[in-house]
TrEMBL record:
Pfam families: CM_2 (PF01817), DAHP_synth_1 (PF00793)
Organism, as annotated: Rhodonellum psychrophilum GCM71 = DSM 17998
One GO molecular-function entry: transferase activity
Domain Chorismate mutase: 266-357
Protein name: chorismate mutase
Keywords: Transferase
EC number assigned by the record: 5.4.99.5
InterPro entries the record matches: Aldolase_TIM, Chorismate_II_sf, Class-I_DAHP_synthase, CM_dom_sf, CM_II_prokaryot, DAHP1/KDSA
Domain of life: Bacteria
Any one biological process term the GO annotation gives: chorismate metabolic process
Length: 365
């Protein structure tokens, strides 16, 4: 098991969920100051202040970030808020400059995580440096690529890691700018124990209206914090104007979220233990049933083989899908879940029967 320091151990004095806020991009010293002053006025001081210095834009010509000069403005944040600062790095030169200007936490953006060469270049530039790094998910829903980027950093000695779920590019789903895929962060947390995942509803939703719902879902799923783009004058922001909120709106948003306790290492209550024991028992029963079902499937396979029938029978499949889905829906299971479950079971059945056919053919030879 890889060792990994949770954000709570990063020396930031965090207790609950980590809140990261600040503008999409650093624009001018006045802008940084105004955001800080408004945060102060609203008593809405995040745990970490974010600001993009180098902006990976889809097409050239739009604002590509203010560059190194912006890093000198981070002093303004330190003076007003006295909190750590984070910015995105996309190559070794960015790392060098960010370290020179004492940025406290780095993050790797979605467009960089997809590229192992770039991630390795960043990791190499960080060898021997003790700085926390957050890795956004890649643009495409590829968990291994996400884990791979975290591993590249871990392998050079960066152990203060976190991941950021910012959704996945999906041009067909117009509800989101980047569609969330909640199973990804959950899988990540399962595969890499102790890995904290922060949610970035701003880039998932792409507007202000949907932030609350997505942020709440992230907390419900057990994610460990939120990164929300915050600007004193969002409509006139130089990048991502539609999705940024003011510090006052951020405060309002956070006050509406029901932050749950992640159980962490504390002892789950007796009631929870009882419920979990019941679920364990049911899972055993489910597995016994599945085992029995597949043994029937094998018998059907033997019959098909004897009678020279194909493994896949379209009419039967259609009937099974429709009748079971209908039954499942009437039992309050979602249609999507029923279809995925049935596909999964059917695929395994077909594979088993086809294997039987192959084995029988091999014996004949
Ligand atoms: C950002 O955080 O401003 C950003 C560019 O994010 P992403 O890499 O998620 O697109
Ligand atoms: Mn942005």
């Amino acid at each position: 098991m890889k060792d990994h320091l949770q954000t709570k151990d990063w020396g930031l004095g965090l207790k609950g969920h980590v809140i990261i806020a600040g503008p999409c991009s650093a624009e001018t010293p006045e802008q940084i100051e105004k955001v800080c002053l408004d945060m102060k006025k609203e008593n809405m001081i995040p745990d970490i202040f974010r600001a993009g210095i180098w902006k990976p834009r889809t097409r050239p010509g739009s604002f590509e970030g203010i560059g190194e000069e912006g890093l000198t403005w981070m002093e303004i944040v330190r003076n007003h808020l006295n909190i750590p600062i984070t910015t995105e790095v996309g190559n070794a030169a960015h790392v060098e400059l960010a370290l020179k200007h004492k940025v406290d936490v780095l993050w790797i953006g979605a467009r960089t995580t997809v590229n192992p060469f770039a991630v390795q270049e960043i990791a190499d530039a960080l060898r021997g440096v003790d700085i926390p790094v957050m890795v956004k998910n890649p643009m495409n829903p590829d968990l291994q690529l996400w884990i791979g980027a975290l591993e590249r950093l871990h392998d050079v000695g960066i152990h203060k890691l976190a991941a950021i779920h910012r959704g996945f590019s999906d041009s067909y789903d117009k509800r989101f700018r980047n569609k969330p895929n909640w199973s990804m962060p959950i899988h990540l947390k399962r595969e890499w124990k102790g890995m904290e995942v922060i949610n970035d509803p701003s880039h998932i939703v792409g507007n202000r209206e949907g932030l609350l719902e997505t942020a709440q879902r992230a907390i419900n799923f057990g994610l460990d914090g939120l990164m929300i783009e915050t600007h004193h004058d969002p409509d006139n922001a130089w990048s991502d104007a539609k999705q940024q909120v003011t510090p006052a709106q951020l405060k309002q948003l956070l006050s509406q979220i029901d932050f749950k306790d992640t159980l962490g290492s504390e002892n789950p209550s007796e009631r929870l233990n009882d419920l979990r024991a019941a679920v364990d028992h049911m899972d055993d029963q489910l597995l016994d049933l599945l085992q029995e079902r597949f043994s029937m499937i094998d018998q059907i396979g033997a019959y098909k083989r004897e009678h020279h029938l194909t493994v896949f029978q379209a009419d039967r499949w259609k009937f099974v899908m429709e009748s079971r889905t209908e039954k499942g829906v009437s039992k309050n299971l979602s249609e999507k879940f029923m279809k995925e479950l049935l596909y999964c079971i059917h695929e395994e059945s077909v594979k088993r029967q086809e294997k039987q056919l192959r084995e029988a053919a091999a014996i004949k030879k």
